[in-house]
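Review box. Two proteins, two foldings.
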Amino acid sequence: MSTVTPSRRLGSHRLAAMLGSPDASRPAYAWLADSIRQLIANGRLLHGTALPSERQLVTALGLSRTTVSRAYAELRDRGYASAHVGAGTIAQVPGGPVAGGGEPLPLGGFGPHGGSRGGSDDEGTPTAVDLTCAAPSAPVGLAEVYQEALDELPAYIGGMGYFPLGVPALREAIAADYAARGVPTDPEQIVVTAGALAGVAAAARLLLRPGGVALAESPTYPNSVTSLRHHGVRVAAVPITAEGTDVEAVTGALRSSGARAMLCLPDFHNPVGTLASNETRERWVAALRAAGATGIVDETCAKLWLDEEPDVLPLAAFSRDVVTVGSASKSHWGGLRLGWIRAPHALIGALARVRMNLDLGAPVLDQLVLARLMQRSSSLAPHTRRQLRSTRDFVIEQAADLLADWRVRRPAGGLSLWFELPEPASTRLTAAAARRGVLLAPGSTFAVADHGLEHWMRIPFAQSQQELEWALPRLAEAWDEVRGRAPLTGVRG
């Protein structure tokens, strides 16, 4: 046994509530050990959490001391717990959490920062927090869904394993989701891709020749613009306002730029957070039609509503011509690396051929996992939605206190806040925050022109509240430094 200070403790009654009723068909120790293991595997019991003592759990569950002792021993033998002097039994992920996993942006790195989203000391206290990433953690129960998919996998092993358009079960699930949202869709209209960016890339290669022009609102999601440019597409910008898409400005920009395609983010726009109304969507597709341009609609954030489900139709409900790109990275889990394209029947054959020039299909196991997830729900898990709503409100409340001269609109969905600064200092703030262990992407990262937007800063709220509680005071101190109100060292609180 070694000595360690746990990062958090779990009460016996709380654990009993999380475990639920025992499975009478199994030995009590096996049920207890496996139930705790699943809580750890699903992320409901965090790595480094001290479990209740054996005596406390005996009282809470009404089990024998021998049963609880044997269950804890089983957890230790399988690597899901360890014993420590003075701390008791501590839950752990076998081998420890894997570093990295953040969403790479053009100005960021591609490796770990020393932790899953940053760094932490031996007691789990953050020493660095990555606020360049806006993506939620995996939903509860994902490990079990993978196990179910593994049980299904033998049916696919007899063949060569290539499904260039996607596994039929997943294409059917995606098509059914569009139909439920008011857009009748055949599975034949769906092409599964390795994420939304792969979908944007395939659509661009189909609709635009190298040297062609695509229109994009600025700010926008930078990786999509990078994907277009890698194909040799010239990207023209049209501003998006704090109120959302300006259809009149879009109409003029389509006419003046000669764009034959437009990257459209109508749903909880990343990073602005706005949601286009049905009336705006109808006028938007009318503008595209009049200009002879095709919309490449990025629906990555479409299911990320936080307050109440919006009463809006997909852009494809207003036009037969748009190409829609979706993704599981925000609604389910980034580690799945799966997306899809929904295209008109007239384009799907050509789009499939273009897509096969990029790769020959996504991993079968991950597709089976996503098919099962979508059959249960195509949206955020309720637990994830509640957590995101709470951290969104927490960041807004803390910013009102610590960063009182910043301005922000409360978005009804999405994963980040788009703050307006009182002066153009986004890049300087990014540097000052990095010296304090808070990693940010300056406003210029989201500009189509790769510069400007110095009055703006995106702050994600997908991180844990513990990380945000650590990062926000340091961000406020960095802002004081930029404004000439604080020394270079020292941290508030």
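Next protein.
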Amino acid sequence: MARVVLGVSGGIAAYKACELLRRFTESGHDVTVVPTAAALEFVGAPTWAALSGKPVSAEVWTGVHEVPHVRLGQGADLVVVAPATADLLAKAAHGLADDLLTNTLLTARCPVVLAPAMHTEMWEHPATVANVATLRSRGVVVIEPAEGRLTGADTGKGRLPDPVEIFELARDVLERSTGAATGGTTGGTTGGTSGAAPLGDLAGRRVVVSAGGTRERLDPVRFLGNRSSGRQGYALARAAAARGAEVTLVAANVTLPDPAGVKVVAVESTAELRDAVLSASVDADAVVMAAAPADFRPLSTSETKIKKADDGSAPSIVLQQNPDILKEISTHRSRPDAVIVGFAAETGDHTGSVLDLARAKLARKGCDLLVVNDVSGGAVFGSTDNEALILGADGSSTEVPHGSKSALAHRIWDLVAVRLAGRS
């Protein structure tokens, strides 16, 4: 059980933090809600107290004998602020402490996650841009806002990400920091708003992740596809964001919620996936091809639905090969120092074992790392768990035992981060 401080600042999205609080408490965490005075204008203290099971105050003077303005930050394992207004970001960046929440941020030495929500003009203002850059340089995880409907009729970037996705990212940050503190394999150090080592070993890095399975149209209602759910790619995107990276996720036919702080580009076919990946990877430090592109597409498609024949015969479909995206981005790199990661879903056949086929694929594709999944019997697809063998072009081999797809994602980024550091 972790001790979590949930800060809430004064924006209309404050009501969404109730769902975030519920996620933390139902996961067994000890949550203390610290709203600002402005936040209490949107959601009252009785609501926070009822949901958290603890008294709630925005003032440093409440329970002053317990020195809450110091103790809350000192004792926290994680601080999350959602929503974080432009005013809160400015105070955190400049070390101002005029209420209980900003005092807590100044004394915290644990991971800090801020989920901004404001109008687009406020988010894009040079002052806010500078404040966010300052906070990130200190190891604070500042989530990119989502795009969508804002207050009133306005739309644009500045919307609070889905609370469920904020929770998933925050849990990723917490698990990673706990693993580091206990000598686990997740690695890395954590940092609060000042003084500590940075949380993100991918801070300042731009990464591209592909996810899902492409579809190749046969007619207006039918397509060739595969069973990829996109869960592993989404776990990779979420993990990279938690580690401080700027993430573009190219998603092929995925129905999962957009990960918090991640730019999502939706595609359908392999050709669309190729175009989106090539465009996004021009200035990327790393590209992880976790999607399952269709190897073939129909030579021609029907503009009308293909009908059944009265004589019971089936139509013939002539296939042609799709472009090999992984080989293309590995062979013709936009940046020579970029790290390219591929995935191999293998079953083994008469020509060789899963490992034999994977090693041959690594050599053929030219990528730096190849994550090998044995998918015999349909394993992995749609599951929340995974296990893999990660082969390196340098001859390395890393076994990742059965566990969550998030755990595998972090292990992949561990290996990517080491290679990026070696090429800097």
